[in-house]
Specification:
Number of helices: 22
Strand content: 5-15%
Radius of gyration: 26 Å
CATH architecture of one domain: 3-Layer(aba) Sandwich
CATH superfamily of one domain: Periplasmic binding protein-like II
Helix content: 40-55%
CATH topology of one domain: D-Maltodextrin-Binding Protein, domain 2
Length: about 475
């Protein structure tokens, strides 16, 4: 009998070991999905970060879930949409353990993401993220996302181009008032003499009505949003829209000597291609994510910015009755832990590594420094850590004004509302203003002087945008209340 039992044990031992091995593998394996991974063959900085995490954590495996590709009507291969990809994963109950979040409200509504409030608030690095950036990770009082990267919106300047426009040139600096910025744009322009050699004073006045209200009235955010809703009927919005109309209304030609958007013969003035990237523009509105391409161009002999001295100053301040307000828009990328993950703590640790974490950002800089072919670090550290800031600006030593924003600035306007505010897409763009026009069309008509703001408000513009917001907010609140 004893021999039979030993025999049975020996026969079943391999299966027992395999079962234990699979369990151990599951406990130390997490899956990851992101849109910035390029291909395994390119082996960019993101994939190197994944491998570095595994080296830092022996025994841990991170498996990338590659996004499927489709072939379009032209026979070209392309990635399936992010939402389609995630819907398919959710339908078979195989969400990634960690993934980039394109819209926090959506992944929460679809129950694709885990509540990590306890882990986040116990994490020292998370609590060092600037407060009004950290707060964007919460919905209904719970942290369903983590900050992966912070970018800024505002104005780039080209000191080389500005200095070429003559003795009256003004080089804008961080904190310059809006009024002085526009005066600098006027002086930092130059007409064409041979054709194609003009200097554009400024480009990027089309969205003044989105960010300027929050400078005039600090209780407002981007596009006048705050937790009460939108305030297109506010004095701040009226003042900002009136300013914006100067460059798009019937009198826009008054500014055609220096404001790019008011000009019609642009190719005759500047030639073909991007005017700023070709080194023919003094001031340009853009996201700070352009640093990688534009600063990289300053050392590339084949680039239009080769040898140029460029910087980023963010949005200007705005002075009202002697009081100056200076707020800068931020664009957030988020990362989340997949709903129902079996490795919650490990998934959180990896999400932090790929995102806001100090140790991960140190490694990111190290990889970029040693392997420039893998890509540049084009976003600053999310955590205010002096060692990280110093290391980051070793990559961009000439960007002294940009450093002031990263190092000193504390008052931000969250631009990426479509990721965190329910119904924003409808309230800002797609919702109906009337039978013929959506909200975006109405705003363009107001900006161009074809429709007065007073008439639009009388017709219910502010009411409509807030109806879209309230409808979506109520739906999300119901979901959040069920979770509680």
């Amino acid at each position: 009998m004893r021999k039979i039992l030993i025999g049975v044990f020996l026969l079943t031992l391999p299966f027992f070991l395999i079962s234990c091995g699979d369990k151990k593998k599951d406990e130390n394996t997490i899956t990851y999905a992101a849109w910035n991974l390029a291909t395994p063959q390119e082996y960019n900085i993101e994939r190197r970060m994944i491998n570095a995490f595994m080296l830092e954590n022996p025994g841990v495996t991170v498996e990338v879930i590659e996004r499927p590709k489709t072939v379009n009507e032209e026979g070209e291969e392309q990635d399936v949409s992010w939402d389609e990809f995630f819907s398919a994963r959710a339908s078979i109950n195989q969400m990634p353990d960690v993934f980039q979040v394109n819209q926090v409200t959506k992944v929460v509504s679809n129950e694709w993401v885990e509540d990590v409030t306890d882990l986040a608030e116990a994490d020292e690095d998370f609590m060092r993220v600037p407060e009004n950036i950290r707060e964007t990770c919460y919905l209904g009082g719970k942290a369903y996302s983590l900050p992966q990267a912070t970018f800024y919106f505002g104005y780039f300047i080209n000191r080389t181009v500005i200095n070429s426009t003559g003795s009256g040139a003004i080089i804008p600096e961080y904190g310059i008032t809006y009024q002085d910025l526009m005066e600098a744009a006027k002086k930092n322009s130059r007409p064409a003499s041979l054709g194609g050699d003009a200097i554009s004073g400024i480009q990027g006045v089309e969205n003044i009505y989105e960010w300027l209200p929050a400078q005039i009235d600090p209780s407002l955010g981007w596009y006048t949003y705050n937790e009460e809703g939108y305030h297109l009927d506010s004095d701040a919005f009226r003042i900002a829209m009136t300013e914006n109309q100067k460059y798009f209304g019937p009198n826009k030609n008054e500014y055609s000597s220096y404001v790019y958007e008011t000009q019609e013969n642009r190719e005759d003035l500047y030639g073909t291609g991007d005017v700023f990237a070709n080194g023919k523009q003094s001031i340009r509105w853009a996201g700070s994510f352009n640093i990688r391409g534009w600063v990289g161009g300053t050392t590339n002999p084949d680039h239009g910015l080769y040898g140029h001295d460029i910087d980023f100053i963010g949005t200007p301040s705005y002075e009202v009755d002697g009081v100056k307000t200076h707020r800068i828009p931020v664009v957030m990328d988020y990362i989340g832990v997949g709903k129902g993950t079996k490795n919650r703590e490990l998934a959180f640790k990896f999400a932090k590594w790929m995102g806001y974490g100090v140790d991960g950002f140190k490694k990111r800089i190290e990889i970029a420094t040693k392997n420039p072919e893998a890509g540049a670090v084009n976003f600053p550290p999310v955590v205010r850590d002096q060692d990280l800031i110093d290391a980051y600006f070793e990559l961009y030593p000439t960007m002294t004004e940009y450093r002031k924003i990263v190092e000193e600035h504390n008052d931000f306007i969250v631009e990426s509302l479509h990721k965190i505010v329910p119904g924003y897409t409808e309230s800002r763009w797609n919702g109906a203003y009337d039978a013929e026009n959506n909200i975006q069309n109405a705003l363009m008509m107001i900006r161009g002087g074809e429709l007065s703001l007073a008439d639009a408000l009388a017709a219910g513009l502010n009411t409509r945008v807030n109806e879209e917001y309230e409808l979506a907010k109520q739906a999300l609140d119901e979901i959040l209340n069920k979770k509680n």
